[in-house]
Design brief:
Elements lengths: L11 H31 L2
């Protein structure tokens, strides 16, 4: 088994997953706020 060398691990997949999660969360918050504003304005 090879020795672990700090800073040598390929983390591109993890970075892409994290960026996708952050992007999805950002858009979900925008949509939720839009729905809340719509509900407030229409008085439903």
């Amino acid at each position: 088994m090879a020795e672990h060398e700090p800073g040598k691990m390929d983390i591109r997949t993890q970075e892409q997953t994290f960026n996708g999660f952050v992007s999805m969360t950002k858009w979900a918050v925008v949509v939720i706020f839009g729905i809340l504003i719509f509900l407030a304005l229409t008085g439903i």
